[in-house]
Design a protein that fits this description.
Helices cover about 70% and strands about 0% of the residues. The protein is an all-alpha fold. It has 2 domains: about 5-55, no CATH class; about 60-165 and about 235-340, no CATH class.
């Protein structure tokens, strides 16, 4: 029989103390407990609360002990790779800043500046999420890191598609924010009373509706649908991310993207297969961190981020950009190599 957890012992001891102070048989005690269950639960909760709080927030809990053990193993095995990861993300962020500074000064018309702003904003967001991936890997959460790569992939696809398309498509993508705001406001109005929030006032809703109608008049009623900004490129029924992925030349990640979805959605696959567990341990439950499964989120994050950064560097032919492109490729290769290790010792 498994040893009871610390919290189980505390509650059990409190129950035994309650029973010791009761004058009567075991059957009478059980009946007494049943008849006063809410009061008994409240009393017992108060008795054990201090000890439970100290245990859960202290450094001696099972979870904290496990985390320290895993962090020590990760640091020993992957510290060089983690340092390379940080350096890789830093280089990508610098490429974003340098490109924006150069091009913003050169572009004079609104269309060029809007396209640059949209591309840079997506690239910067991808860099931030890459840092989230790094933090999750550093702390032993491969599955969460893989789920965050999923978003980077989506950003990369949109980035590449917009980069290769005309100003009108970029403008429609930008204008679609109004449709997204309207949809969120509509959902908010339908649920705010239940949540105890204040509803939008009539003027706010009217403004959103007027802005939406203006865009529907400009682009057509289909603009209000899902992926409405994509109506120039695909007929209704095929306006989805998968089609944009193909047009952006990123369909080779389709299967990997599907696996990453398992760490986002509540499908049964998400509880059957965990990156953080070795194949022979997939029948185990994984509550906290582990030191296994980091290669996929790291290499796919590097690939997606590198794809966008190389695209930015290709905007201008210069010795500086050529050198940065070489550095980017070198760091990416070294990063993947650092995480392509034998994980047979992983827990």
């Amino acid at each position: 029989m498994d040893e009871p957890f610390f919290i189980e012992k505390l509650i059990g001891n409190a129950m035994e103390a309650e029973k010791a102070n009761f004058r009567g048989t075991t059957a009478e005690f059980d009946a007494h407990i049943d008849s006063r269950m809410p009061e008994v639960i409240k009393h017992l909760t108060g008795v054990v609360m201090d000890e439970v709080f100290k245990y859960c927030t202290g450094n001696s809990s099972d979870l904290k002990k496990w985390e320290r053990k895993i962090n020590k193993r990760i640091k020993k095995q992957f510290q060089f790779g983690l340092d390379l990861f940080a350096a890789f993300i830093e280089l990508n962020s610098k490429i974003s800043s340098i490109t924006y500074r150069k091009c913003h000064g050169q572009f004079e018309n609104f269309d060029d500046q809007l396209k640059l702003d949209i591309l840079t904003a997506n690239h910067v967001r991808a860099c931030q999420i890459a840092n989230e991936v790094r933090v999750l890997v550093t702390n032993g959460y491969a599955d969460g890191a893989h789920g965050r790569w999923r978003t980077i992939h989506e950003i990369c696809v949109i980035f590449l598609f917009l980069y290769d398309n005309d100003y009108e498509t970029v403008q429609m993508y930008n204008d679609y924010e109004v449709i997204e705001k309207w949809k969120k406001a509509k959902e908010y109005q339908e649920t705010c009373a239940y949540l105890g929030f204040e509803s939008l006032d009539a003027a706010e809703w009217r403004t959103l509706e007027e802005d939406r109608q203006t865009l529907l008049a400009k682009y057509g009623k289909d603009f209000g649908d899902s992926y409405g900004w994509f109506i120039k490129h695909m007929p209704k029924g095929r306006r989805n991310f998968k089609e944009i992925e193909k047009l952006a030349g990123q369909q080779h990640f389709r299967a990997v993207y599907g696996w990453a979805n398992e760490n986002i959605h509540a499908g049964v696959s998400g509880i059957r297969q965990r990156l953080g567990l070795k194949d022979e341990d997939q029948h185990h439950f994984l509550i906290g961190s582990s030191d296994h499964g980091f290669l996929d989120p790291v290499q796919y994050t590097a690939a997606s981020l590198s794809e966008m950064s190389h695209t930015l560097l290709d905007m201008e032919e210069s010795i500086m950009n050529t050198i940065m492109a070489e550095l980017l490729t070198f760091l990416q290769q070294e990063l993947v190599s650092a995480f392509t290790t034998d994980e047979t010792d992983a827990i």
